[in-house]
Write a structure and sequence with these properties.
The protein has one domain: 3 Solenoid (Pectate Lyase C-like), CATH 2.160.20. It is built from 2 helices and 32 strands. The protein has helices at 2-21, 48-52, and strands at residues 24-29, 55-63, 67-68, 72-74, 78-81, 88-91, 98-101, 107-111, 114-121, 125-129, 132-136, 139-143, 148-152, 159-163, 166-168, 173-179, 185-190, 193-195, 199-203, 207-212, 215-217, 222-227, 234-239, 242-244, 248-253, 256-260, 263-265, 270-274, 278-281, 286-288, 292-294, 297-298. α2 links the parallel β1 (24-29) and β2.
């Protein structure tokens, strides 16, 4: 009897230890939380970095209230949701806001976040590895380099989806994509605004970007740019969008740009700035009040 009792006590102790150090599928952060807490709803953590170690792979971190939750590096599949209608902020100086360095099968979702570089941060979001990155309803601004920097070096397919987000006042590129090796990273940008960056959207080596229902405005150098250092493997397609009030509208350098049902207006440079590579347009584009229209190869009507 005593033996059974001792075994039961040992089992209870082991279960308690497992629960103490286990990871939850959903955790919580709050501006009045503490990273020493278990990150439950009633005892939330204070930062995303504090919560991520207590969140299981594939789980979710949710913000309970408006606050600054700090920079974080993500190494596994996870969702971070700032909550609709409030300011869940990542404010950084001299560093990156969120770095995604996940595994080849990991999906990461960043939703309802305001990421502020206050003029000295490097990149708002830096995607270095993973299967799929989703940026939804985010506002990314004030970084010296890129708002969203997709800088992969992986032979497995990666995708990025940007929905209903704003990239503003970044010193480099609003959204930039490249992979050091094949295959090309595939990026979709929908219902978003990219404004007051040096370049709005850039497809560099091994990247393919599709832009729909979006506005790119006041890009000092180029609204959209396809430039590859490894051959004609950078592609941008843009449809149902506007490229306004910048330098050049679209610039192709050893890459290809396909343009449909899009307005290029009030750009001081050239709307279709083809250097090398390809510039292809459908007949439903609208060009007016640019420094020059430039040239592009028309697609025949289907």
């Amino acid at each position: 009897m005593r033996k059974i009792t001792l075994l039961n006590l040992l089992a209870i102790t082991l279960l308690g230890t497992s629960a103490m150090y286990g990871q939850a599928s959903r955790t919580w952060v709050s501006g009045v939380g503490d990273d020493a807490n278990p990150c439950s709803r009633t005892a939330p953590c204070k930062t995303f970095a504090g919560a991520i170690s207590k969140t299981a792979a594939g789980g979710e971190i949710d913000a309970l209230d408006p606050a600054g939750y700090g920079a974080v590096t993500i190494t596994k599949a996870i969702t971070i949701d700032g909550g609709g209608g409030q300011v869940a902020s990542v404010l950084v100086s001299g560093t990156n806001g969120i770095v995604v360095q996940a595994g080849p099968s990991d999906v990461v979702i960043l939703r309802n976040l305001r990421i502020n570089g206050i003029g000295t941060g490097i990149n708002g979001i830096r995607f270095l590895s993973g299967k799929d990155l989703n940026v939804e309803d985010c506002y990314i601004f004030g970084f010296t380099t890129n708002g969203l920097d997709i800088a992969l070096n992986q032979a497995t397919q990666a995708t990025v989806h940007v929905f209903h987000s704003v990239f503003k006042q970044n010193g480099g590129v609003g959204i930039r994509a490249t992979n050091a090796v094949a295959p090309s990273v595939k990026v979709g940008v929908d219902f978003s605004e990219i404004a007051l960056d040096n370049i709005g959207v850039e497809a560099a080596s091994h990247s393919s970007i599709e832009i729909n229902n979006s506005m790119i405005s006041a890009a000092a150098s180029d609204g959209i740019k396809a430039d590859s250092a490894t051959g004609p493997d950078s592609i941008i397609g843009i449809d149902h969008s506007e490229v306004l009030n910048g330098g050049n509208g679209a610039t192709s350098i050893a890459g290809s740009i396909v343009i449909g049902d899009t307005t290029f207006a009030y750009n001081t440079g050239t709307a279709f700035n083809k250097t090398t590579g390809g510039m292809f347009t459908f007949s439903d584009n609208r060009l007016h009040d640019n420094g020059a229209n430039g040239t592009a190869t028309p697609f025949p009507k289907q």
